[in-house]
Specification:
The protein is mainly β. It is built from no helices and eleven strands.
């Protein structure tokens, strides 16, 4: 599976960004697609994930601000981020898992994209 993340950039606090993850090489509809992020000096952490049945799970810090959707016709997953905070600044990675329950552990994701930088200024 090849994954390509895009959409990062610089935004002011309170603003919005939409990240896209394009997948190829496998049956997209059968994959769980997750988003992770890694801030400078910190470990990579789980953000959001969506299963093949469109069940979605997220970390508490993004509740009510981020949302996720998938378009199987386009083989893409979109992470919509609103009300961004400086602490959301990180490199965001999309990843794919063969596990169907929507895991949040990095170790459960076998395929990774290259990451896209999101910078939120205060």
């Amino acid at each position: 599976v090849q994954l390509q993340a895009s959409g990062g950039g610089l935004v002011q606090a309170g603003g919005s960004l939409s990240l896209s993850c394009a997948a190829s090489g496998r049956t997209f509809s059968r994959l769980t697609i997750g988003w992770f992020r890694q801030a400078p000096g910190k470990e990579r952490e789980f953000v959001f994930t969506i299963t093949e049945t469109n069940s979605a799970y997220y970390t508490d810090s993004v509740k009510g601000r981020f949302s996720i959707s998938r378009d199987s016709a386009k083989n893409t997953v979109t992470l919509q981020m609103t009300s961004l905070k400086p602490e959301d600044t990180a490199v965001y990675y999309c990843a794919a898992s063969d596990y169907r329950w929507g895991p949040s552990s990095i170790n459960d994701y076998k395929y990774w994209g290259q990451g896209t930088l999101v910078t939120v200024s205060s």
